[in-house]
């Protein structure tokens, strides 16, 4: 199993993931078994929108135990298939540097809501105006290993929008096909060593990129909500 040193984390190795059982996280479900029987052609952008717009989920409120943050999980059509916008965080950032994530950041006192924070940060990082984003729903919050509570907002970015990454915060931006988070061939199990504790986590491989941690849980939750809908 290959291993790579990750600053601030320790050794991180990964290999293809064998079939497994449901994994649970606070405030969300993370059942990967559904992915082994899904026809990716059935997961269209219209199905994503219809299902997520009707997702009532419980409206979550901050518990005050973790610093709150908010992110935008933005879908679009790229090369004829549904994709989700992801960014590689700049290596100079204090938290989660060099990792793949969704645009977003800390909720500030000046923000009217968590959704406002997600849209504001998305504009700062990628230059997307809030008027070019159609938010479908609020997703269950996810806790990060660094102690943040992240509130995801799923939606769609308007077609033809040119992204202008903020170089100080964003090293790369890519439209990741949704099928990557469904097909078994894309799954990996990574081993993360942090402060002497070893954990095995589910991750996804797209080309030479590895998507793991809170971002992997957020997109898995989103896809599973859609695939499990009646």
From TrEMBL:
Statement: the UniProt record of this protein carries the keyword Isomerase: no
Residue ranges constituting the Nudix hydrolase domain according to the UniProt record: 65-198
Top-level taxon of origin: Bacteria
One Gene Ontology molecular-function label: coenzyme A diphosphatase activity
Signal peptide: none
Cofactor(s) recorded in Swiss-Prot or TrEMBL: Mn(2+); Mg(2+)
Keyword vocabulary terms for this entry: Hydrolase, Magnesium, Manganese, Metal-binding
Coiled coil: none
Keyword Magnesium: yes
Record's protein name: NUDIX domain-containing protein
Native source organism of the sequence: Candidatus Lucifugimonas marina
């Amino acid at each position: 199993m290959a291993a790579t040193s990750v600053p601030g984390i320790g050794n991180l190795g990964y290999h293809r993931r064998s079939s497994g059982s449901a994994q649970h996280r606070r405030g969300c479900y993370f059942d990967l078994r559904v992915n082994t029987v899904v026809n990716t052609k059935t997961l269209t952008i219209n199905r994503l929108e219809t299902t997520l717009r009707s997702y009532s989920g419980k409206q979550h409120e901050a518990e005050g135990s973790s610093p709150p943050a908010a992110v935008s999980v933005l879908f679009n059509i790229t090369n004829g298939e549904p994709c989700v916008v992801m960014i590689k965080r700049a290596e100079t950032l204090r938290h989660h540097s060099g990792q793949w994530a969704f645009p977003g950041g800390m909720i500030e006192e000046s923000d009217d809501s968590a959704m406002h924070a997600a849209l504001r940060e998305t504009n700062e990082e990628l230059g997307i105006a809030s008027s070019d984003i159609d938010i479908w729903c609020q997703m269950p919050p996810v806790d990060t290993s660094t102690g943040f509570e992240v509130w995801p907002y799923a939606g769609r970015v308007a077609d033809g929008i040119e992204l202008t990454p903020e170089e100080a915060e964003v090293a790369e931006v890519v439209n990741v096909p949704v099928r990557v988070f469904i097909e078994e061939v894309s799954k990996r199990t990574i081993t993360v060593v942090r402060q002497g504790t070893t954990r095995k986590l589910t991750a996804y491989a797209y080309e030479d990129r590895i998507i793991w941690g809170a971002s992997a849980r957020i997109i898995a939750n989103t896809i599973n909500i859609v695939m499990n809908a009646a």
